[in-house]
Amino acid sequence: MTGRVTPGQQVPAMELKIVGGGDWKLADQKPEAYTLIEVYRGYHCPRCKVHLLGLSHKVARFAERGIDVIAVSTDGQERAEKAKQEWGLGALEVGYGLSIESAREWGLFTSTPIQESEIAPFAEPGMFLVRPDGTLYSAIMGTNPFHRWNHADVLEAVDMIKARNYPPRGTAAA
Question: How far apart are CA 114 and CA 125, in angstroms?
Answer without folding.
Answer: 16
